[in-house]
Amino acid sequence: xxxxxxxxxxxxxxxxxxxxxxxxxxxxxxxxxxxxxxxxxxxxxxxxxxxxxxxxxxxxxxxxxxxxxxxxxxxxxxxxxxxxxxxxxxxxxxxxxxxxxxxxxxxxxxxxxxxxxxxxxxxxxxxxxxxxxxxxxxxxxxxxxxxxxxxxxxxxxxxxxx
Amino acid sequence: xxxxxxxxxxxxxxxxxxxxxxxxxxxxxxxxxxxxxxxxxxxxxxxxxxxxxxxxxxxxxxxxxxxxxxxxxxxxxxxxxxxxxxxxxxxxxxxxxxxxxxxxxxxxxxxxxxxxxxxxxxxxxxxxxxxxxxxxxxxxxxxxxxxxxxxxxxxxxxxxxxxxxxxxxxxxxxxxxxxxxxxxxxxxxxxxxxxxxxxxxxxxxxxxxxxxxxxxxxxxxxxxxxxxxxxxxxxxxxxxxxxxxxxxxxxxxxxxxxxxxxxxxxxxxxxxxxxxxxxxxxxxxxxxxxxxxxxxxxxxxxxxxxxxxxxxxxxxxxxxxxxxxxxxxxxxxxxxxxxxxxxxxxxxx
Lengths: 162, 349
Ligand SMILES: Cc1cc2nc3c(=O)[nH]c(=O)nc-3n(C[C@H](O)[C@H](O)[C@H](O)COP(=O)(O)OP(=O)(O)OC[C@H]3O[C@@H](n4cnc5c(N)ncnc54)[C@H](O)[C@@H]3O)c2cc1C
Ligand code: FES
Ligand code: FES
Description:
Chain B: One of its GO terms (molecular function) is oxidoreductase activity. The complex is a heterodimer. By secondary structure, chain A is α+β, with helices and mostly antiparallel strands. Chain A contains five helices and five strands. In chain A, a hairpin with a 2-residue loop joins β3 and β4 (57-60). In chain A, α2 (88-95) crosses α5. Chain A is globular and about 50 Å long. In chain A, 47% of the residues are buried. Among the domains of chain B are: 54-114 and 161-220, Uridine Diphospho-n-acetylenolpyruvylglucosamine Reductase, domain 3 (2-Layer Sandwich); 221-328, Enolase-like, domain 1, CATH 3.30.390.50. Chain B has helices spanning 12-19, 33-38, 75-80, 82-87, 89-96, 101-106, 109-114, 120-123, 166-171, 189-192, 275-281, 288-298, 310-328, and strands at residues 5-7, 24-27, 46-49, 59-61, 67-70, 175-179, 185-188, 193-194, 203-204, 211-217, 228-233, 244-253, 256-265, 272-273. In chain B, the strands form four sheets. In chain B, strands 4-5-10-6-7 form a five-stranded antiparallel β-sheet. A four-stranded antiparallel β-sheet of chain B has the order 11-12-13-14. In chain B, β8 (193-194) and β9 form a beta hairpin. In chain B, α11 runs antiparallel to α12 (288-298) and α12 (288-298) crosses α13. The relative contact order of chain B is 0.13. Classes of the chains: A alpha+beta, B alpha+beta.
């Protein structure tokens, strides 16, 4: 059952031919488009490494059929920076040591971007820990991750006001 | 994963036609179905994608004061909805106590109701499980079963319904709207689920082709808004299924409980409305003594299905805790740790 879908990924239209409807968004991003920033940890919705934005909302790309998203806007970690200028969440992860090995980091960053748009810049440290609980870090960089998200939230608020 | 045919109908009527074919499954958020397909536990011949059915996306207050929630409304959108937060705060709290931010953005009302048990033997296509095929037997009976049912189980199946959202729905007497090849019907969430019996495993009462179109919260459920909580005990503070959970709602007047609503999660194959406990509270003075009596009544028929006798006492304690929290009043704003026993106190409304 061949299917042709079109996805707008990080601002570029991509036509993708699928031999059958099985591929997840995660597999299409990595295997077809060649965007390997999005990671496969568990492939079962349990770790958050595969988090991307679909139409601006964070989801687990491993539990989403690509065919169902025909026409959607996808943002991956590759699409966050503006040229050499990092997204505030990316910058804050570097500033606050929000990682060790880095495997979970693209998912953490995309999840944080999604979270900050959900909370509207008002989240407490506790709310951020709760809101980021769908992203596991086997290196245990959680303290830095929390600080990074808090700092990004503050910086985004500051930039918004100036 | 086996391959399958894929259809994306544009109307509910077309979806029902496609969904009525043997071997067809509806695809909503995909967060449970794809997981089970990857495990080889579900092998549908075709998926009927219902994600673009506009008819199922709306949250609509009705003339009679009830609130009708379309089956494709995403869990996160529902939890953030103003009417839900105002009138049915325990529903919002339960939604936010479930899964993760990413999963809630994908998971839908219908899919949450229809999600399958998390029993490890059900999840393993090679274990004996009557939910794979009635008559196979149940490996959980002699296996790892510390999280299994203490109410309403039989040796056919001891799995529990894992949903948080469904617990306050059961307490509030939510109605499930179903459409299908034989027309539409509306049933209480209590009757929507079947408990296991001597030979049949638990499940929903949906027939092949039937689709959940909406869930309605009755208008009389609003009177609990000032005192409504959902408390969930889990292995870690967030992103884990309930060991036990409780929705507790009180309507208090002249110092006495005029009406109480109670349901338990993680204890049975369906969200467990505890009517005996509600009866025990009616007319009583809100306080520890009455809550303890209610908890004893709720678990009076409980028995361990395996290595899980502790869940009976845990369920009582969580229910008492939820009743106390409800009596203290619904917090003015959602706790930062929704549904958590570690939630820090906030001013009541
Ligand atoms: C890691 C992880 C952690 C989780 N933690 C929690 C938790 O703590 N608490 C909790 O409550 N849940 C939890 N969940 C489960 C999650 O809530 C469910 O996966 C989700 O609600 C299912 O909704 P969906 O729309 O994705 O359903 P789908 O996966 O699309 O469908 C699930 C089932 O429902 C059927 N279906 C869907 N919509 C309809 C409809 N309208 N009519 C008829 N049938 C329909 C499908 O055919 C399928 O059989 C967790 C899931 C994961 C993966
Ligand atoms: S790879 Fe998707 S959640 Fe782990
Ligand atoms: S930095 Fe190594 S897994 Fe998180």
